[in-house]
Amino acid sequence: MAQGAMAWVCDRRQPGLTLRRKEEPNKTKSKLKAAAVAILKYFQEQYFLVGLGIVIAIASQHQVPYDQQDFKETVVTYLCVSLIFLITGCTLPTKVLLQNYSRWKIHLYVQVQCFLMTSAIVFGVVSAASTNRNFMDPGLLVGMVFMGVVPTTISSNVVLTRQAGGNTALTVAQSTLGNLLAPFITPLLITMYTSTGAWYTDFLPRNGGNYGAIYAHVVGQALQNLFPDATKTVMAKWKLSKLSSLALIVIIWSTYDQAFASGAFDSVPASNLVFIVFMSIAFFLLWLVIAFVTATIWLPPKDVVAACYCIPAKTPAMGVPLVQTIYVGISPLESSKLQVPMVFFQGLQIASGSLLLGTFRWWADREEKKTEAGEGHMPNGVAKQPV
Description:
Layout: H1 2-45, H2 47-61, H3 69-91, H4 94-99, H5 104-129, H6 138-149, H7 155-163, H8 168-193, H9 215-226, H10 228-237, H11 242-262, H12 264-267, H13 270-296, H14 301-310, H15 316-326, H16 332-355, H17 357-372
Helix pairs in contact: 2-11, 3-9, 3-11, 3-15, 5-6, 5-8, 6-16, 7-8, 8-14, 9-10, 11-15, 11-16, 13-14, 13-16, 15-16
């Protein structure tokens, strides 16, 4: 009887064993499918960088004929730049700023550093580098100055802050405010820094620029507030806001197309490009350290993380169109040089921000636990509160 029972048990278990053997391939397929989905999702989130790589590769191999560069520049400048400002105005949530108006101290803290601190440091480095006229190309020097005065980015800041466990709402508010102010502050700052009479600004056109495209930003804000439901449907539901990224990719393609067609990279020593890369790394790390040290003095951990992603970041989405807008009539070669530092910095900041996710998440969690345990208090015994 015992043997029969054992045989019966074995018979009952045998199908289970068979099923387990059959499940192994299914598990492998599931893992492969999950990996494929994760990779696809990653590329969907990083579509801008993927598109950037594709258009740069195309521009390096095939360029618009040189005698048609002016026509291409005119179309891109007026059509794509106006489209970016219009969509930006339609999608930046003005209400977010109004809802966070009481936090004016942190608004002032972040924006002063984004526009003034970063630009002052870059201008100091450029002034030092320009003491030797044979050291750096003037177009790259002005491009570095321009990189310093553009606002923080929006999309990557929000994504990275959320993944790092920071205050996403604060990041949205600060990024929105910076990009709302940029069309008015950035031209003033770049004019101030390039009106010093320095030799490296001699090639810049002395006209006032064409600021008509910036008014599309104001029109977008008006449409958003006058027709909120329709604007939300068109921009969010119909995904029309993606056209802004597409327009920016077209502008960057135009930039590199000009650069390769005009021989910009060939005309610039390799040492200059290496200098741009290393200085971009140094700028990012310096701004990050300043943001972290100053923010930890008076802000709670989640707000510190948000500040550390907002302050060091720079967006070519606003900078590249402003170059096209402010310096109308500049040669394709010099226009390309102006935009190179911004494009370099874009990839660097996203890569660096991604690498810092785990560190910020660990630090914020640790500080939150200290606060909950009564250890994360200010010297006067009062816990840090949102300002």
